[in-house]
Amino acid sequence: MTQQTSRKAIVVFDIDGVVRDVSGSYRRAIADTVEHFTTQAYRPTPLDIDQLKSEGVWNNDWEASQELIYRYFETQGQSRKQLQLDYNAIVAFFQSRYRGPDPNNFTGYICNEPLLLQPSYLEQLTQAGIAWGFFSGATRASANYVLEKRLGLESPVLIAMEDAPGKPDPTGLFATVRELENGIEQKLAIVYVGDTVADMYTVEKAQALDSSRTWIGVGVLPPHVQETAARSDAYSETLIAAGAAVVLRNVQELTPRQIQELVSSSTQSLV
């Protein structure tokens, strides 16, 4: 997003909970799906979903929905083998709520997601010599809907669900970085911004696999946990325990100056 010679750092953004508020869309679709497949016996609360996500391996919301269904029936004395859930049916129902019944014309919950950043913020990063792109577990269609249609970005660097294994596997993060580096030899520091434990674990795994550069995890509090101070504090502590260098209330608090300060302090700590 900037001239190669002027680059100072690379920032990669998660999308859900960072670029857009998904509490009334993805998370609502999870609750709808679990409720449907438990025949209205159980609808998970936002806290239930957060607790599952805090385990760090349920970044895929289809899989998270299935897991919550399994766990409910286990509390009723049924084993997973007995249930034989149809994963494809779970995905189809979820998508009918989130995206809408027509895959080519979105009419579902996705249409009402509040944006959490503005294009002007990304332009500030570009002007400061900071390259940026996106690595998300969302489908490419869903990610492009918010990035291109809602934010008006033109062909941004994006690695989506179809392009890489799910987080916390860092393969997709590495792929995003390669596209943003575009062949330059300098090993720039990488900042990955996310709102879940899986996002922070992704950074730690990237660091373990490539220690030749600095990897920094920045946590963002998704809007639904900011309703009370206690909830915000607990969520912040969870992200920090998972490896976040700092936790912000909104992604736009990650200014070019703060990015440079994070990079400098991380580099010094490695010396």
UniProtKB/TrEMBL annotation:
InterPro entries xref list: HAD-like_hydrolase_sf, HAD-like_sf, HAD-SF_hydro_IA, HAD-SF_TIGR01548, HAD_sf
Protein name as it appears in the record: TIGR01548 family HAD-type hydrolase
Bilayer-spanning residue ranges: none
Entry keyword set: Hydrolase
Organism name: Nostoc favosum CHAB5714
GO molecular function list: hydrolase activity
